[in-house]
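Researcher: Going back to the complex we discussed earlier. I've cleaned up the inputs and rechecked each line, so this should be the final set. Can you rerun the prediction on the complete assembly and write out the structure?
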Amino acid sequence: MARRTEARPSESTVLPTGSPALVWGVVAALLVALQAGALGTFVFGLLADAVAVIPAVGPLEAVVVWLVGALNGLQSAASEVPTLLSREVIPNAGYWNGQQWVGTFLGLEPALAWAARVVAVYAYSFVVAGWAVLGYRLYRREYRTANWTPRDDMIDRFRSHGWGLFGLVVVFMFVVMVVFAPALGPTTVDKNMRNSYSNEIQYYDEEAGAVETIVVGEANLGSQSTGDQSRVLPMQYDDFGRFHPFGTLPTGRDLFTFIAAGSRISLIIGLLAVGLSATLATSLGLISAYYKGKVDLGSVLVSDAVMAMPQLLLLIMLTAVLSDTWVADVYSGGFVLALIFAFTAWTYMWRSLRGPALQVSEREWVDAARSFGQRPLTVMRRHMLPYITGYLLIYGSMTLGGAIISIAGLSYLGLGVAPPTPEWGRAIKLGQQYVNTGSWHISLIPGVLITLVVTGFNALGDGIRDAIDPRSDAADQESAGRGGGA
Amino acid sequence: MSIPVVWVGTTMTWAIIFLGPIDPASRLLSEGQVRNAASYEAAQSQLGLDTPPLQHYLDWMTNLITFDLGQTWLLYQGSSVNALILDFLPRTLWLGFWSVLVAVLVGVPLGFYAGMRSNTVADYVASMGGIVWRAMPNFWLAIMLLAVLSNSEAILFGFDWQEWWVPLDALSGSPDMSRIGTVDGFLAATKKVLPAAFVLGSASMGNEMRIGRTAVLEVKNEDYVDLAKAKGVSDRALVWKHILRNALVPLVPIITSEAFLLIGGSVLVETVFGINGIGYLFYQAAIQGDLPLVGTLMYVFILMIVGINLLQDLLYTVIDPRVGLEGE
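Model: Rerun complete. Updated structure for the full complex:
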């Protein structure tokens, strides 16, 4: 690897202001301010959901209820703050009044208005990402004391790894979809699915030649995709002037909105599950590498036993067993799914971490730290953990892909995420009987998206692996990205 | 090592089912029967839930070890679990056998082909295909494959899968295992599971391709290949005798370790294709609440996986004499 050997430039090379950090910070603040309302809504909503997870027992109950109430209040307050990339600023839901489109962005037709919003969302996201990269490079060039660190090599290697970058872009676009899910859909889950009978839309009735009003639920009945006769294909309008980028579901609901909302639950469950199993795998990996002997043997035994039960079957069994408990209701069953997945997936991750952890534990500095009188916990945290975090990233990324497949597989079977909440696997199930007919899009599109996202996560994992350890070939770890055969 | 693994795995299953938040007895009964104290207690004592947990655990373990699996409660009510497993297992084994074979027959040659022509367009296409193939959800691939096959005449230029060679009565469904001895029956049963096996093997196919490619690349640069080349061994003999045979070694454990994926994936694939296999039975037992049956089946799965692991270790010592049984 080429190392930077030239002398550090003594003065700023970016801007004549002398304080590039200030300029960077101001622009960053501006970028965030454009979306402050949405950010607040998301953060407070997530916190409220997280607090609601706490079992309310005895005196805690009042506190929890109060906290949830307060957080929900904050969430609705934040949703009042105007944001640039919202359906209020760039609306796509409007109607044709005989001469022109009413209520859409700049009077464009709904498809173009929706496309404008999507383009704006992705443009904004890529600008933010680019700005973050710029900030990192600024820091590296101008502010960091060290001229070179080993991590620089990894990042440089990753930057020249085309496959890994492809994965990063796919994952980034997926994450943007998750974050902006409510703004991306042509309509909202609430209007189109949950409360479709308490929302009205207006449309232009060709025969009457006048604008009519109809309840969304009624309109959905007229936009069903159930075979050759009645169908709304991708990129088409239905009879009520509503644009459907991915077509409609057999119930007449909008597939794109369904998928965007489903991406959110998939990623949140996946992240939670991978986070939990990574924590479990790391702590166990460190402990067994540090103490070796019987502790190690015990961990091998337990993980072998968990691995001997096929992962998907274990998921099914645990979902069935836990279906009537209170955890099963948290986040439409997503939370318990994440817990179960973490319980089954840590073994594979631990298996992959065990080797590197054992290697690190043999190093001199661990011995030195031990003879120096440092406590075991400190040795593990300070002198062993930093060397295996990279491996965590690799397997985390691949396990996340597997988790998304598994969750989709479970909801295809009707387990896991409870029905009214959108989930990709359920879209596949809903469209299964229409695959042979004209309404082929319902099953096809979610499947293609899952494939793309999982490929992205695997590619990202490959890229990180090559960046961290270019000599390794972790071809034996393929099953991590498979979600137990779903 | 394998006996403790079976023991710990089975114990965990027992704990999840009988110490978990669900009362297996009440899941077995309908609403009305739960409220009827007499029938509830009958169910409890039948399951042995009125005995102390330790006693119950010992009884349960003894029954499993001696394969005294009792009777079912909900599914196929009252039939013996042993008979049920013997009825369902062959179909899954048949499916698993073909999916391993399909994966090996397609994945390994493709991987070797890609490895022999590394960094060419063919290599990139094959590698890319393998990667995307691996990321596809099995159940979705199954649905799509069924859609293509049922319309095969329109999509595949007049090729009609259902009538081709051996006519099938229906595209999906269980293979007929009773006539497997005859040539006709064998072909029909094979053709019936072939699409399912193809889907189930897809994940392994991608893996085997990738590892086959790496193995060929590694072997190609070994000294003995250079020596053989210098000796004037013909290209064909070089490839077949020196490269491919040695590249096969790292593939063996991969093929057997795919068993995890195959057995896990069998639930979804069997559900989509409507095959009455053991994975389908497990799924039905789980959603209908026949938890004792779930536990028993889990025990069978654990035995299968541990058995395959043992087989893998044995195979490894046969193929690669450098590996001993004692030294890990």
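Model: Worth noting: Residues 1-12, 474-481 of chain A have pLDDT under 50 and may be disordered.
Researcher: Good, that matches what I expected from the previous run.
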